[in-house]
Write a structure and sequence with these properties.
106 residues; alpha/beta; 35% helix; 4 helices; Ribo_hydro-like
Length: 106
């Protein structure tokens, strides 16, 4: 029997759709232990990206993982149309089935 160590990963992301999908994929990887998540409002608006991250962890996570919000701001933020995408992910029906969000914010 082979024993493999899980790689510990702290995932800091910018709230873009690609990063929200990456969060989902990290939660599916058996060789990864996700130790925490933080969101920086670079490609997104912070609130929907935080909400979507917490809902993804609630729906697909395997343990207690907290989400932190960064207060950093970019000098040249992405255009509004790009930053709106986190709202679309946050509104996905599969992420809203339970009607509540339990993943903590730190």
């Amino acid at each position: 029997m082979e024993i493999t160590m899980k790689k510990k990963v702290y995932f800091n992301h910018d709230g873009g759709v690609d990063d929200l999908i990456s969060l989902f994929l990290l939660l599916q990887m058996e060789n990864v232990e996700l130790t925490g998540v933080s969101v920086i409002p670079a490609d997104c608006y912070l609130e929907p990206a935080m909400s979507a991250s917490r809902k993804i962890i609630d729906r697909f996570g395997k343990g207690n993982i907290a989400v932190a919000a960064s207060n950093s701001r970019g000098q040249n933020p992405f255009p509004k149309d790009w930053r709106m995408h986190a709202f679309y992910v946050d509104a996905l029906p599969i992420l809203n089935e339970s009607g509540k969000v339990v993943t903590p914010v730190v």
